[in-house]
Write a structure and sequence with these properties.
By secondary structure, the protein is of the alpha+beta class. The chain is built from one helix and two strands; from the N terminus they run H-E-E. The chain has one helix at residues 14-33; strands at 34-38, 62-66. Strands 1-2 form a two-stranded antiparallel sheet.
Amino acid sequence: MAHLPLGDGPCNCVGMRFALLEAKLGIVKALQVLEFQRCEKTEVPPVLCKMAFLKGKNGLFVRVVRRSQ
């Protein structure tokens, strides 16, 4: 059996799991309050780069606004 330093292997740090959970909850909370809209500068339909994942050739522009209740 190989040496696994503290934090590696099946006994990962509890703080790392907690931090990931907090990050996910923060994203969910932000998506409940904010809305993403397409800007005028965004091309329709978007032309994506072949070398990058979800990267527009001339950029993908969005506007972030608070959701109306």
